[in-house]
Amino acid sequence: MTDPVTIPARRGKATRVAKGQTIKVINTHGEQVVDTWAFNVDDLTEFMSMEHSRAHILKVIPVVGDTMLTNRRRPILTFLEDTAGGVHDTLMAACDKHRYKFLGVEGYHDNCEDNLHAGMREIGLNAPETPSPLNLFMNIPVQPDRTISFEAPVSTPGSYVLLRAEMDLVIAFSACPQDILPINGKAGQPTEAHFVVAP
Amino acid sequence: MTDPVTIPARRGKATRVAKGQTIKVINTHGEQVVDTWAFNVDDLTEFMSMEHSRAHILKVIPVVGDTMLTNRRRPILTFLEDTAGGVHDTLMAACDKHRYKFLGVEGYHDNCEDNLHAGMREIGLNAPETPSPLNLFMNIPVQPDRTISFEAPVSTPGSYVLLRAEMDLVIAFSACPQDILPINGKAGQPTEAHFVVAP
Lengths: 199, 199
Description:
The structure is a homodimer.
Chain A: E1 5-7, E2 12-17, E3 22-27, E4 34-40, E5 43-47, H1 50-57, E6 67-69, E7 75-82, H2 97-102, H3 112-122, E8 134-136, E9 159-165, E10 169-175, E11 193-198
Antiparallel strand pairs in A: 1-11, 2-10, 3-9, 3-11, 4-5, 4-8, 4-10, 6-7, 7-9
């Protein structure tokens, strides 16, 4: 077991993971959304896809036992454990510069899109685009009238999701820097999170 | 008012639309799903995005008055009218060769991904990727337990959606060739549909 790797608050981090290894994504302080992407390490144009995964798992939120698919409908990540209350999101795009401008921010604001690309560059890779992310710990309830909203997480400090890599892949995370909506807790204080890759 | 253009059964069709023009998408025979894409005509890497639109309209299904956004969060299509019961889908990827292989089809099966690209090529354009489509008339209910399923349409013959172009764009359609799941009606018989572009 390796030491936990820090996903710094408001920043991105990526790492290579071999097929069969597991990745534990830890919500260290309990209210931090972690945008998560996975790419085929041999061809970054193949990546985990929310719209292909939903058609396969037949849920808007994956549960333990579900396998996420790539945009070529191949298995890429399986949910093995989830101690975070089972609340995640597959519906929302990564936040980006346009989103913060819309929310009234003047000038630059950290954002998950830039964090993805910075995290990938840090290990010498270029993500070809910004796929719709798997937003771990993110609470977007779908109401019977089909409306959705940005709510505070229900996860608790130290809760985690354990994923298994179904191919050799690159996994990328962003500790979401959203501090305007309550998506990272009502205090609006983004924090670090951690992950552990194990054989 | 121009004559209706046919989207042939199991096939794709695309056309250029100027900002401010309207597009009426007609479910001619009542049970046909029409996968719909829109691209910025001046830069095809900017296109209508389900994940960015959901974050803006705060619904999983757009209703009259809602404006869909591009992957750069700019307005691209607005719902002006909907006589089709308000049931559409933003959750599911376009069907593709991998999907039909998974469903047990041997050999080639028409699919919405190929239809998108064929329709674009027919007017001299190349779609840079296959964005997650706006699946008009497609019935994917979301249950309180977060499960989803492929159901028959609730639309009726001649029902339609009227959209307004918010930028100069290319709109592409696929009359979905799905004949295994009941998504185009329980009879599993994909049909043609039609559209009309008006000033």
